[in-house]
Amino acid sequence: MASIQGDMHESMRFLKEAAVALEYDDREFSLLAGLSREVRVAMPLQRDDGSIQTYYGYRVQHHNALGPYKGGLRYHPSVNLNELRWLACLMSLKTALVELPLGGAKGGIDCDPKLLSRRELRSLTRYFVQKLHRNIGPNLDIPAPDVGTDAQVMAWIQDEYSVIYGYTPGVVTGKPTLVGGARGRESATGRGIGIVMQEYAHHRADELLGKTAVIQGFGNVGRHAASDLTDRGVKIIAVSDSSGGIINKAGLDVKRLVKHKDKMGSVLGFDSAEEIDNQALLMLKCNYLVLAALGGAVDETQASRLKAEIVVEGANNPVAYAGDLVLRDRGIVVLPDILASTGGVVVSYFEWVQNIQHMPWSEDDITAGLTVRLTKACDGVFAVATGQNCSLREAAHRIATKRLKDALWITSF
Ligand code: NAD
Question: What is the pTM of this model?
Fold first, then answer.
């Protein structure tokens, strides 16, 4: 395999598969797999109790042939360079698939935000910007929320960056609407999941109404997917977060559950449900299993035991490459991350545009724009999957990889 920086993440094999299907040679593959830039910064933080703890922050930029680098910023103890490399590449593929004028990046800090006070979180975020500001910017690299970060963290980044460069709302997306955030950005990834599921149901001459779904992860993506799917008539029978899972086969009241999670910090203890082990939840019989937590949730073992009809990747990279091969063998359809979890970056793009124009869009315009872009991407993916007799993931990767390679080739040579 052509050389790429550092250890190759297992999921790079998805890219390799696409390159082989497109008959690219090693030169072309290494152009696709190579990374533009990696930044690692050390941040000694004075904790509230006076002690010093050093955290590490990272930003990996994959490519900017189609536009500025774009991708989430994750605060989680599992943050590591190897995974960020694949997630940055995946972002490039996502933006290419939905034809956004953006590249791909990913970053994060290896911290547990739940163990930090608000002051500590704010200081760490501002410190990160002080160290990283030369590598981000509205025409360079535009971070957004991801696991463990939210609109508040984006507001701090915007402010710290603006201290150095003057008012620059376009340096991040996913900000509070009051300071330039797009209406509907917070719910966009969850809503996008609903749109893609709906499009796939239509493609199969089916409908979502009356179907059942299990959702792993009840953070930003999971809760908004649950709300959107409820609006489409899907019964959410079980959900989980890092503390555990809950189940009610008659259907969970999502609105009440969101309030419960906000108040208690966990889905556990919800009055109209029983508890279920997180692994057992993945094996429940249902129409749709929506994975909206972390990467690598489904490996070979879990893939061989899942009872869902369709797996939906709301998270980034939740089905490992080996697990995907098992699901393909078993004929279980996967709506892949590169398509199903793209709603967030589409609305981030709208936010970036409205920041550059200094002209806010209405939520209706944003929802309409999101629906048009995702529907078009779905049509393309379904057509290639049918025409080339391959999985939806393979189809999506082939389309995105070709766009990316063409742009890289034109700009490089
Ligand atoms: P979040 O931090 O808001 O939520 C993550 C949720 O997953 C939390 O509820 C957490 O408790 C839960 N979780 C963690 N480990 C778990 C486990 N083992 N079992 C069950 N639940 C577990 O993060 P988010 O923004 O919702 O992101 C979730 C995923 O979606 C990530 O993979 C992220 O990269 C991806 N994603 C996010 C966005 C976005 O706009 N936020 C966009 C595209 C993709």
Answer: 0.95
